[in-house]
Amino acid sequence: MSTSRPEAVLFDRDDTLIENVPYNGDPALVLPVAGAREALDAVRAAGLRTGVVTNQSAIGRGYITEADMQAVNARVEELLGPFDTWQFCPHTPQDDCACRKPLPGMVLAAAAALGVDPGACVLIGDTAGDMAAAHAAGARGILVPGPATTEQARREAPAISPDLGAAVRMALHVAATHGAATEAP
After folding, report:
1. Would the pTM of this model clear 0.85, i.e. be above it?
2. What fold characterizes domain 8-183?
3. How many Cα neighbours within 13 Å face the side chain of 1?
4. Could you tell me the residue ranges of all domains in the chain?
5. Residue 147 and residue 134: Cα distance in Å, rounded?
6. Which residues pair with 62 in a beta bridge?
7. Which residue from 9, 46, 64, 84 has the highest number of Cβ atoms inside 10 Å of its Cβ?
């Protein structure tokens, strides 16, 4: 895993970029987390590629359609600016797919879509699944604890940041040590 400045920053969507509304298919309910636009502007200003990797089991469960999810994602872009790639897993945990986090499929697909090595990516997310997907792909993970973050995820995270802005600063400026937890100020 690289400890140098990344070429791309990938983000989990729900509870990382936007407030989580379970199984949301309504763009009107999209609310960015505090500081999300500024954090993304900093990544873009640094010349890095951006992407979203998001489990969306609501599709597989039949609660929303892919078109509903795309409408929510379009609203995210209206509020936070464009992303260079969107990767999503429509499957339920029972589907045993290769893309659903904690597996690395979406991280690898995002890196390929961006034309960068997975080791040159940082994934910022709020769950152990996000961190496991990053690790399995060879990317760096930064945990931003939120309502879905478990204590185990906190203990096992390679890096922890108190909020999205600090996580982006960490991704841009601090080389986290592989295997040792670090915490942003």
Report:
1. yes
2. Rossmann fold (3.40.50)
3. 21
4. 8-183
5. 20
6. none
7. 9
